[in-house]
Amino acid sequence: MSGARIDAIAIDGPASSGKSTLAREVARRLGFVFLDTGSLYRAVALAFLSAGVSRFVEEDPSVARILSSLDIAVTPGPTGARISLGGLDVTDQLRTEEVGALASRISAWPKVRMALFELQRRLALAGRIVMDGRDIGTVILPEARLKIFLVADPETRARRRQKDLESQGDSRPLETVLADILERDRRDRERPVSPLIQAPDALLLDTTRLSIDEAVTWIVDRYR
Ligand code: DC
Fold first, then answer.
1. Which residues are registered as beta bridge partners of 8?
2. What angle do CA 22, 105, 150 make, to 5 degrees?
3. 135: nearest Cα among 151, 115, 120
């Protein structure tokens, strides 16, 4: 791809491939800010839940109403961004399973993706940022100086996710977590708008057998 490159790193990949953990540490080593864009889709899901929208279909008029008055603010920082909704900091409410499950569904809706595009694009163009998500290298910041597409085998991702949930006091059988991950993969890859795909100029990194430190060093070395 030609054109001006932006001093930024795009990290895309499926659920629990290690994106945010690696993006945060890469940003720390480079002195960049870090933004996990999944938190924006989660904030929209929280806005829907808080508004008590009961029928979650894209065509619902209340969906359009909530999206048109959406007031999401992002304050990026080195260890992650604080996200506020309608002036209230909701960062600590975004990681629940309820919010995650709804975020997975609504992120397939073009209206939702459009509502978040400008915000992400503005933050990306400011540069010196590591952004992780599903479509950063393909749609949000195709000009990123470095693009990484992370993969890891589904069972490894399920084990990581299970450990994560356990640390939040939520213990679930591995098969349940794995089935959920496979379903989210399917939705991310099969949605018609901004599906999860590797950008042609993205480097593939399989984290199945890598430690966090090995993966971070690999990314930072490529950037430098
Ligand atoms: O990475 P995560 O699980 O926090 O993301 C929440 C949901 O948002 C996930 O189901 C996929 C979606 N998402 C997306 O469609 N595009 C992005 N750039 C980031 C997340």
1. 129
2. 25
3. 120
Left, alpha or beta for 128 (phi > 0: left; psi -120 to 50: alpha)? left
The tens-digit pLDDT sequence of the chain (224 residues) is 446 899 999 999 999 999 999 999 999 999 999 999 999 999 999 999 998 876 678 888 889 999 999 999 999 877 789 999 999 999 999 988 889 989 999 999 999 999 999 999 999 999 999 999 999 999 999 999 999 999 999 999 999 999 988 988 889 999 999 999 999 999 999 999 999 999 999 999 999 999 999 999 999 999 99
The reply to whether ligand 1 has any atom less than 6 angstroms from the CB of 104 is yes
Q: Is residue 92 part of a domain?
A: yes
Q: Which domain holds residue 86?
A: 6-223
Q: How far is the CA of 134 from the centre of ligand 1 (A)?
A: 6
> Residue 37 CA: which ligand 1 atom is closest?
19
Say which CATH number the domain at 30 has.
3.40.50.300
**Is residue 1 in some structural domain?**
no
- The pTM score is 0.94
What's the domain count of the chain?
Answer: 1
On whether residue 38 sits in a domain, the answer given is: yes
Contact 100 CB / ligand 1 (< 6 Å): yes
Q: Is the CB of 102 under 6 A from ligand 1?
A: no
For residue 64, what is the enclosing H or E element? Answer: helix 61-68
Decide if 153 is inside a domain: yes
- Residue type at 70? L
Q: Is the CB of 188 under 6 A from ligand 1?
A: yes
133 alpha carbon to ligand 1 midpoint, in Å?
6
